[in-house]
Amino acid sequence: TLSDRLAATFKNLRGKGRLSEADIDATAREIRIALLEADVALPVVKKFVAAVKERARGEEVSGALNPAQQIVKIVNDELVTILGGETRRLRYAKTAPTVLMLAGLQGAGKTTLAAKLALWLKDQGSSPMLVAADLQRPNAVNQLQINGERVGVKVFAPEPGNGVGDPVAVARAGVAEARRTLHDVVIVDTAGRLGVDAEMMQQAADIRDAVSPDEILFVVDAMVGQDAVNTAQAFLDGVGYDGVVLTKLDGDARGGAALSIASITGKPVMFASNGEKPTDFDVFHPDRMAGRILDMGDMLTLIEQAEKSFDADQAAKAAAKLTGQGGDFTLDDFLQQMQQLRKMGSLSKIMGMLPGMGQFREQLENFDEREIDRIQAIIQSMTPSERDNPKIIDGSRRARISRGSGTQVSEVNGLVDRFFEARKMMMSMAKGGGIPGMPGMPG
Ligand code: GDP
Ligand code: MG
């Protein structure tokens, strides 16, 4: 995953003050691979990576984040922007009914979506109606009727009695019926083919002209990957649409199609379907999708928290010490870092968010947060010279510290040992890469 690979790249970036051209190139390479793995179309990947590099070059170096984290943040921001920024809301007609038209290939999930959308609208107090304008597949009308029944929404369908036999006429009659019966939203389900073809496109365009939809939604199966781009473009040229709905996100698709389509068409992804049940549906969240495409786990949450709570000055001082430029790393620094960590949230949660930290999970689960309180008590029972130079802490000093902090001598010993161990580890991390501010995991 990108997490793993970036963790490796982090190593090379550790400790550097700013983004060098080589750093940017190395990180860009990993991001490029990750996007291709997520099935993002190549031209989109190229354009995206170029934009990220451009931004990375212009970026000021943040105090709270290391260079690689900073690039990840840029990547994420860029992804979210392309995917539509804030969730795009449905546009309702000034005069009811609002007409929504669904377009897309056969099997994309239009008929399923029609019912989901209807239920969602109903839950918001609307009174939607479904129109079965897919007369292509023998069972299509019946399928919509069944779906409509499941969510308790009226379905307008051609019947021997109501005199409509072609999809354009059905769509027109359906909207008229909705107006007459005071339904405020009409959802027009249309036919699709397995592949794009001119006749189908024309039919969709004719339905569009007949009902003047307020929103045309292009429905696309997220599992189709690379091909989605061609289909999306064909529908954009042939019918046009205002927004995209991704379906089958419950599958294992990484969601590259979302980025490809949004980037190439400039249309926002508005809704997401993630299952066959009517409730398996939500408005689209660009930030969540960005996380899924990059497969960054909770890395971004961590970055956010780090930015909020990290004291840049303190971090710079600690970093300088670790690289041997600001004197020795002392017990005071150790304590400060512990407190810094706690500010960022529960230590174990934080550790769990970091890529590559899975191996420590067991240790983390056994970690007692109160440990930090004890560490604090012990260190605060030391004299300044003991904190600066823990080597002088001999047997009698240990006994005094343990009495002062109300702990066992063995705990004082444990802490001092751990401190030396942590210092060693941090020194090597500072040289060879690793995670900043993660000293002395007790355990
Ligand atoms: P249409 O041809 O575009 O109308 O597509 P349908 O609505 O008939 O859906 C085609 C198939 O995909 C059906 O078997 C649906 O149950 C299934 N389907 C639709 N949406 C989803 C989804 O979000 N997740 C999953 N797993 N299946 C879906
Ligand atoms: Mg259908």
Write the layout of secondary structure elements.
Layout: H1 2-13, H2 21-37, H3 42-58, H4 67-82, E1 98-103, H5 110-123, E2 128-133, H6 140-151, E3 154-156, H7 167-180, E4 185-190, H8 198-211, E5 215-221, H9 227-238, E6 243-247, H10 256-265, E7 269-273, E8 281-283, H11 286-294, H12 299-309, H13 312-322, H14 331-343, H15 347-353, H16 361-365, H17 370-380, H18 384-388, H19 395-405, H20 409-432
Parallel strand pairs: 1-4, 1-5, 2-3, 2-4, 5-6, 6-7
Antiparallel strand pairs: 7-8
Helix pairs in contact: 1-2, 2-3, 2-4, 3-4, 4-11, 5-6, 7-8, 9-10, 14-17, 17-19, 19-20
Bound molecules: guanosine-5'-diphosphate and magnesium ion (MG).
Protein name: Signal recognition particle protein
Biased composition (Basic and acidic residues): 386-397
Organism: Nocardioides panacis
Briefly, what is this?
An 8-stranded mixed β-sheet has the order 3-2-4-1-5-6-7-8, sandwiched between helices. Helix content is 55%, strand content 9%. It is elongated.
